[in-house]
Amino acid sequence: MDGDPGYQLSASTTADGVSIAIRGRIDIANVQRLREDITERIGDSPSALLDLSGVTYFDSGGGALLLQLRQALGDRGGSLEVTRSTPDIDGFLRLVDSDTLIAPARAARDQPGLIERLGADAIEWSRGIDEIVRFAGEIVIGLGQALRRPHMIRWQDTWEYMARSGQQALPIVALISFLMGLITAFQAAVQLKQFGADIYVANLVGLSIVRELGPLMTAIIAAGRSGAAFAAEIGTMKVSEEIDALAAMGLDRTRFLVTPKVMALVLMLPCLTLFADLVGVLGGLFVANLGLGIPAQVYFRQMALFMSFGDVQIGLTKSIVFAILIATVGCLRGFQAKEGAESVGQITTSAIVSGIFSIVVADAVFTVIFHEW
Hints:
single chain, alpha/beta, Transcription Regulator spoIIAA, 2 domains, 13 helices, 4 strands, 71% helix, elongated
């Protein structure tokens, strides 16, 4: 190599291995070249002895060099020993713990059997059910206290959560609902037009939007927006130990953190559902009027003849239950956060997935119940 490397190297073969004496500087700038020179001098010898008494400068690059050489020789059954050095180098090397800097080989772990995995999953599932039941009990008690003592409700926080989960969700709810009504009407028109039953598009759109799609799609949007926001907010407070501070001050976490969120979503989700029903019906009218030539008066009259206020009540009942599920799951996932920002991201994702899953299951239960009635 060209240029002065900043060090001189001399090597000799002894009974214990290759003895190498280094003079000059060992720093980050020349450590790569020095390693190549030392490796060339060592060759196939299993062990090496280093004389560093002539080194005038030694930094972290030299420490990394020694660790790399020690690991390389150790991999082939050899060793590296520093025979002589300066007091400064000795002090630096005492700060280096090679056992922590060189990762040990991981011991192979036996994979658990099928029975063991099933048992672990069953125990984890039972713990999750127990936690859900306990938390649901806390919410019931908190809502009961709020109804008995309205003056103890944190109304300012409740209004703020109502604005976040209600007013700020109107644009996305309007867009999704209009598209759902439009898609439903278009798909129905393709089939009904073959039989000259275009007018029944109003029946199908009205029933599907008011009883099923309106509450369901609005709840899914709320799970993605409000449920995730609740989980992230409480999870961040848990990570920053604000939850522990509330407990240390003797404050009820349910009253301060959970009740305002549950009440806000219970009040706003039915309103969003009614708004989604209206916009979805207008989406169906768009297809019926422009695609099938059905006047708006005929469309709404046909819908009124076929539907009743009971259909609207069914959708509103679903939305109230969906709101309780979304808020409960979001808050519960937030309290399950552990340490670190990664945990907050995980519980936020879990809140969305668990919320949507609970919504779909509840909707299936409602469908069976109302069908039997």
